[in-house]
Structures are given as structure tokens and as C-alpha cells.
Write a structure and sequence with these properties.
mainly alpha, disordered N terminus, single chain, 9 helices, Tetracycline Repressor, domain 2, 0% strand
Length: 195
């Protein structure tokens, strides 16, 4: 008797959700699309999550929690806090390879902000993201890479810069997204650099 095929784990399914969101956008996404991407049946997805809304809420929660891993990964990869900050731009580039994919990913994060449950996940993600920026900025100041400054205010500015930069790349960008994000980060940080 052949062994039963292994079912995809929740993290594998949520990764499939983000790939399908990038391809189709959240409004066109169906459970069948996600199931196919994850190697499952639509019935298996319904059994596990219940509905498209529940699946998208799980994805929103996963994205919000993922910011902590994003910053930990950047720190692990780069010894310099400032280099780790630039590494965050590389991590954000997973939102898509094309302007259409990034636009679809952005629509997932912004289209449901009027919905209280989705907004709660977006708010939690924003808090975690800004905390990660503040921590890297404090460490960059302590390491002498940046001049002493109000790191909370600068983190808020960088948060706005990165998210605005994503949108501007979708509207007018050429070249790679990570390079575009880094260019905008460098422009903001230029006045704070010590070297």
C-alpha cells in the first residue's frame, strides 16, 4: 500500500497564499488557486481554514508576526546594524519581482484596512516593524555608524519611506525593487551618517 501523501503544513499553505496573492491579487484569489499552489485539494483547505476570509486572516496574522523574523534574519546576515538595515530592503523585495506582483501584494495589505480584524493584524505588523527599525537605529548609533538622534522619530520616517517607496516603485520604478528601496533609505539616512 502506498503511503498517504503528506499534507502541506500551515506555513507552506500561507507561503502559497502569498505567492497566489502576488500573481492574482487578493480579490481574484480563490481557495482552488491556493490549493493548487500548495499541492492540496480545495476541500482540504476548507477543512483546515473554513473559508477564504479565514485563510486570508491567517495570512495577515502570519505576515504581521513575520516582521520579527525579518529583522532577526537581517541581523544574523550582517554584522553592522546599518548593513542589517539595508538588508531589510532585500527582505521586503519578496513581495514580488514585477510591479504587478508588488501591486497585488500591496493591495492585500491595504485593501482590507477598513475591516477591523485585518486592520488589527496590519497594526500589529506596523508596531513590530517600527520596533525593529528603532532597535537597528539605536545599535547603529551605539556602533558609531549614525550620529546621535531621535531613533523613534527616525524609525517612523524610515517606516513611511519604505512603504512609500514600495508604492513609488510600482508606479514609476525600473530596476530591482531592493535597489530602489535601498536608494530611498540611503537618501533619508545621508544626514545621519558619521562617515
Amino acid at each position: 500500500m502506498a503511503p498517504r501523501p503528506r499534507l502541506a503544513s500551515d506555513p507552506e499553505i500561507l507561503a502559497a497564499v502569498f505567492r497566489v496573492v502576488a500573481k492574482l491579487g487578493p480579490s481574484k484569489l480563490t481557495l482552488a488557486d491556493v490549493a493548487k499552489e500548495a499541492g492540496l485539494s480545495a476541500a482540504a483547505l476548507v477543512q483546515r481554514f473554513g473559508s477564504k476570509r479565514a485563510l486570508l486572516l491567517a495570512a495577515a496574522a502570519d505576515a504581521a508576526a513575520g516582521h520579527a523574523f525579518l529583522f532577526a534574519g537581517a541581523r544574523e546576515k550582517h554584522a553592522s546594524p546599518l548593513a542589517a538595515l539595508m538588508g531589510v530592503a532585500d527582505c521586503m523585495a519578496i513581495m514580488g519581482r514585477t510591479t504587478e506582483e508588488v501591486a497585488n501584494s500591496l493591495s492585500f495589505f491595504h485593501s482590507e484596512l477598513a475591516d477591523r480584524e485585518f486592520r488589527a493584524h496590519a497594526t500589529a505588523g506596523a508596531v513590530t516593524f517600527q520596533a525593529g527599525l528603532r532597535s537597528l537605529l539605536r545599535d547603529a548609533v551605539a556602533a558609531g555608524e549614525l550620529a546621535k538622534c531621535d531613533t523613534a522619530a527616525l524609525a517612523s520616517t524610515l517606516f513611511a519611506t519604505l512603504h512609500g517607496s514600495l508604492l513609488s516603485w510600482v508606479l514609476e520604478g525600473d530596476g530591482e525593487l531592493a535597489a530602489w528601496l535601498k536608494s530611498d533609505l540611503k537618501a533619508v539616512l545621508k544626514g545621519y551618517r558619521t562617515t
